[in-house]
Amino acid sequence: MSWLNELYRTYEACKSEVGMVKENQPQLLPIAHLTQNAQLEIVLDGEGHFLRACRVPKEDAVTVIPVTEDSGGGKGNAIFPHSLADTLAYIAGDYGNFVRNSKEEKYEKYMAQLEKWSSSPYSLPQINSVYRYLREGRVMQDLLEAGVFSFENGKILAEKQQNIELEKWFVRFSVEIPGKVESRLYCDTEVFESYIRFYLAGQETQELCYATGERVPCSEKHPAKIRHTGDKAKLISSNNASGVLTYKGRFSESGQVAAVSYEVSQKAHSALRWLIAKQACLKAGEQVFVVWSVEKSDMKNPFAEFWGEEEEAEAFTDEHYATQVRKAIWGTERELQAGDSVMVMGVEAATTGRLSIPFYQKYEAQQFIENITRWKTETCWLYKREKEKAAVPWSPSLIDIVKLVTGDRSDKLTKSMYERLLPCIVESRRLPYDIVLSAVQQAANPMHYKNEWDWNRAVAIACALLRKWQIERENREEEYSMVLQEESKDRSYIFGQLLATAEMLERSALRGGGKEIRSTAAEKYFVRFQRYPVETWLTIRNQLNPYMAKLGAEGKRFYIDRIDELTARLELTDKRKLEPTFLQGYSCQKMAYWGYFKKSVAENEEETE
User: Phi/psi zone of residue 153: left (φ > 0), alpha (ψ -120 to 50 degrees), beta?
Assistant: First the structure.
C-alpha cells in the first residue's frame, strides 16, 4: 500500500494546513470531516435561541462538516445522520408538520447522536447551544417566520426549492457568543478538534493495520468524494450486505482481505482530495492525475507549458531552458535533497461507486526532475504567440499535445494517450512514432483551424514532437534544431523553407497594400504540396507574380533572391512526396523571417530618431 503510506506522510507533513481557510484555495480537511454544499445557514446565540436564517449563495456553499464512518461513506437509502450539520429531514423535529411522508426516525437518530457529543467531556458551548435549540423541534416554524420558504395553510407551497428536494436542503450553523471571534462552526478549528477527540474516543475494536503494521482501530467504510464534492466512487471498499459483491468463496468477511486504520484512511484520503483540488495536473473525463512530493507538496505541474524569456530568445541554449524548467517545477526556495521523492498518481472511476488507480509510480526526485527537464528541453520549439513581437522558446503542455494528437475526439482516446505519453515524460521512454506522425498530419492542414494563431500553435507542437523523436532516433544523419538550418541538405526541409517564403511574400504584399490578410496560396495548397511538391510549387510560383509587382524594389529583390537560392538547392525532377521534416523547415523559416522583420523595424525606428 505504498500510495496510502505516501499520502498519509503527506498529510502529516502538512499538518499546519489542516482546517485553514484561505481565499480561493482548497482546504486540507481534518480527519472525520468532509465537505458538503449547504443551502441554508441558521444563526443562534450562546443560549441556543434562534436569531436568524438565510439562504447560502452558491459561491459560499462548500461547508466543512463532521461525519461518522457510516455517514461519510455515503448514506444512500440508509438512515445515517451526520454529527452536526445535516439536511432538514434530519435536524428539523417539526419537519413532518410541513412535509408529507417524512421519517421521524431520521430526527431521532440525529438527536441521539448529537446528544452524545454534547454531553461528552469533549463538548463545547457552541455544540450545547445547537443541541438545546434543535431539541425544541421548531426549525421549520422558525424558517416560516423568517420568510425563508413560502407557506400556505401551514404547508410549503413547493416541495422543491431551487430544483433541490426540500428534504435534501443542507443546513449549517453559526453560534454568536460574546467575546468569541469565529461564530461559524464550519470554520472553527476548535470545533474540529472537539469532534475528532470525541469520535476517536468512541472507537474500541482494534485490528492489525496493513498500512502501519500496528494494532489500532480500523475502518470498514472508507471516504468518498475524492475528485469533487459529488463523487461517490471509493478507492477502498468491500462487500455490501445485499451480497451483490462477493469474495468468490475465499473469505467470509472484509477484514480477512486487508484492514486499514481509521486514522490512516482518513488522513490519506483527505490528503489526496486536497492535492487533486489544489494541483490536479491532468483531467480527462473521469480520469484525474496528480503529482506531488512529501517534501514539497506545492510543487508545480510538470506537464504544463513553460515559456522562455523573450529578451534571451536569440541567445537561447538548452542549458538555459533546462534551468528554467527545474525552477518552474521545484522552485528556488528549497534545493533538491538525496532523499526527496515524487509521486505520480492517476485515479479513474471504474464504476459509479469504485475508483481505480490506472497509474501510480514513486520516483527519486532528482531523477524525476532530470527526466522532465530532458523532455521539456528536447520538445522545445520556437513559437510566436499572438501577443508577442517575436518567437520565443516554448515546450507544449501534455494537454496541448494530447488535444492535437487525438483531435479532441473522445475521452477514451484521450485517456489512452495520456497513459502512453506519461512514461515518455517521467521515465524517459521513447516517444512512439505513430503519435508524432498523427501530430504532423493534424498540423499539416491549415484550413482546419479557425485562425492563424491556432494553426501556428499546432505546427509548433508537431515540430516539437518530431524534434524529440529525431533526438531519440539511433544512427541519425541529421538532428533538427529549432533554429533555421541554412545548410540543411534534406529535400523535404528545403521545400518547407520554400513554402514559407511564398507565404511570407504574399502576406508582405497584402499587408503593404492595406488589404485584409486572407488565406495565402501557400496555405490553400498546403496539403497538396506535401504529396506533389514539384507540380504544386509551380502552381504557387505562378500565383506569386502579381504580389511581387506590389512589393517595393528592396522587398522584391529579397524574395526573388531567396526563392532562387532555395530552388537551386533542389532537384526538381525528383517528384517524391515530402517527409514530415518539411514542417520543420516551414516553421523555422517563418520564425527566421519574423526575426528579420523585427530587426528591420527596430533599425528603421533608430534611423528615424
Answer: left
pLDDT of 122 reads 96
* β-strands 40-45, 50-55 pairing: antiparallel
Q: Distance (Å, rounded) from C-alpha 273 to C-alpha 478?
A: 47
Which secondary-structure segment (H or E) carries 357?
strand 354-364
Q: Which are the contacts of 416, defined by CB distance < 8 A and separation ≥ 6?
A: none
Other residues' Cβ atoms within 10 Å of the Cβ of residue 242: 6
How far is Cα 3 from Cα 368, in angstroms, rounded to an integer? 17
Q: How far apart are CA 197 and CA 302, in angstroms?
A: 39
Per-residue exposure over 29-55, b if at least 16 CB sit within 10 Å of its own CB, e if not: bbbbbbbbebbbbbebebebebeebee
- pLDDT tens across 574-596, in order? 889 999 999 999 999 998 887 75
Q: Exposure of 524 by Cβ count < 10 A (0-12 exposed, 13-18 middle, 19+ buried)?
A: middle
- CA separation (Å) from 190 to 210, 381, 393, 583? 31, 53, 51, 62
Q: pLDDT at position 168, please?
A: 85
Q: Between residues 246 and 329, which one has the greater pLDDT? A: 329
422 within 8 A of 368, measured Cβ to Cβ? no
Distance CA 545, CA 84 (A): 80
Q: 122, exposed or middle or buried, with CB in 10 Å at 0-12, 13-18, 19+? A: middle
**Separation CA 281–CA 411 (nearest Å):** 16
With cell 475528485, the residue in question is 227
pLDDT per residue over 295-305, tens digit each?
A: 887 788 898 88
pLDDT in tens, 533-554: 999 999 999 999 888 888 888 8
